[in-house]
Amino acid sequence: MRRILLGILLLAAGCSKKSDPAPTPTVYYPTAATWETVTLASLGWKESGLTDLRTWMQGNGSRAVLVLVNGKIAIEEYAGKELTTANSFSANSFWYWASAGKTLTSALVGIAEGEGKINLQAKTSDYLGTGWTSLTPDQEAKITVLHQLTMTTGLEDYATANPSGDTDCTTPACLIYKADAGTRWAYHNAAYTLLDGVITTATGKTINSYASDKLLKPIGMAGSYFKSGYNNVFYSSARSMARFGLLLLSDGKWDGTTVIPAAYVSKMKTTSQSFNQSYGYLTWLNGKASFMVPQSQVVVPGALCPGAPADMFTALGKNGQILNVVPSLGLVVLRMGDSSENGLVSFTVGNELWAKLNPIIGR
Asked: Given 3-state DSSP classes, what are the helix, strand and coil percentages for the chain, each rounded to the nearest 5?
C-alpha cells in the first residue's frame, strides 16, 4: 500500500511540474542611448525569409519595417528606392503616422482621464463650448468625448453631403447631423481632430506640450503633431513609434512606471460599441467576427488581418502606416512608407506584411 501511495504522489508531482505555466518573459525597455537586439537564430526564426521581406519593401514604397520581441529589436529594415543616398531613410528619419496617430491621441485622452482632467462621459461641448457643430442644442448635447473616441458622434462623414466637400473640415458649418450620437459607427476625421481642443481645454496645455510632458519624454520618444489643413498629423522615427507600441504591449507601463492607466489601455483594445466589432478607442482590433471600413456602412465578415495573430491590436493610417501589438507573442510590428492603396487606412498592406513575416517567425 505504501508503494502505491508513493507512486501516486510521484505521479502527481510529475503532472504538477508539467502543467506549470511557462514563465512570463522579461520585457526590455530601451534607454535613450542603447537599444538591445536579439538574433533571429536565438528566437528560432528563419533568417532566409528576410530576402522576401526586403524585396517586398523595395517594391511597394516601404521606408521602415521594425519588429520588437519583448522590447528587443529582432528585425530593423530600411528602404526607399526613390531616395538618394544623401537622404536615404534610416533609424533617425521622421515619417508621418497619418491616422495611426489617432491611437496616440487616444492614449493622451486616457492619461488626462487618469488625472481627473477629462470625463469620457461628459458632453464634448463642456470642453469645446456650445455651438461647435451646426446641430440643434439637443442633438449636440448628446455627443460625448466617448463618442469621439469610438467614432459614434453621429456627424455626417460623407464628403458629398458636407457643405465644404471635405469631411476633415472642423468648422461648425461642416459638422452636420446624420444620426443621434451613439446610434451609428462612421470613421470621421473631423470629430476625432477636435479631441485636440478637448485635451487643450482640459489640461491647459497644447496637445504637443501635453504629449511631450506626459508620454513622449517618459518613454524616450521624439516626435510632434503638425497641422496639415484641418488635421493634426504626428511625425516621428520608426524607433519612436516602436517605443509607443512597447508601452501599449506593457499595458501602459514603462519599466514599472505607469504612463497610461492600464484600465484605459484595456478599453483601447476592446470592442467599444455594437456596430464595428473591430474598433476600440481609436484603435483597430484583429480576430473579431467582422469589421467595418471608413466611408462605408457595410459590415465585412471575418477578421481585419486574417494572417496575423487574433489578439493583435493596431494603429492604422493611410499609405500603410501600421503599428501592430501582439500580446500573446510579445511582438511590436511596424511599417512606415508609401502605398498605392486607396483609403483612409491600409488593410491590404497589413495583410501583405504578415504574409512576409509569418515564414520568418514560423507561424
From this structure: 40, 20, 45
Q: Residue 23's pLDDT band (boundaries 50, 70, 90)?
A: low
- Amino acid, res. 146: L
Question: What pTM does this model have?
Answer: 0.92
Structure-block grid coordinates of residue 30: 530601451
Q: In what order do the strands lie in the sheet with 62-69?
A: 72-78, 62-69, 331-337, 321-326, 313-317, 284-285
- Cell 463618442 -> residue: 147
**Cβ contacts of 56 within 8 Å, gap of 6 or more:** 62, 352, 353, 356
3-state secondary structure of 51: helix
Supply 120's cell numbers: 469620457
Is residue 17 predicted with pLDDT exceeding 60? Answer: no
Closest CA relative to residue 62, chosen from 262, 359, 356, 301: 356
Residue 359 cell numbers, joined = 515564414
- In angstroms, the CA 334 to CA 80 distance is 16
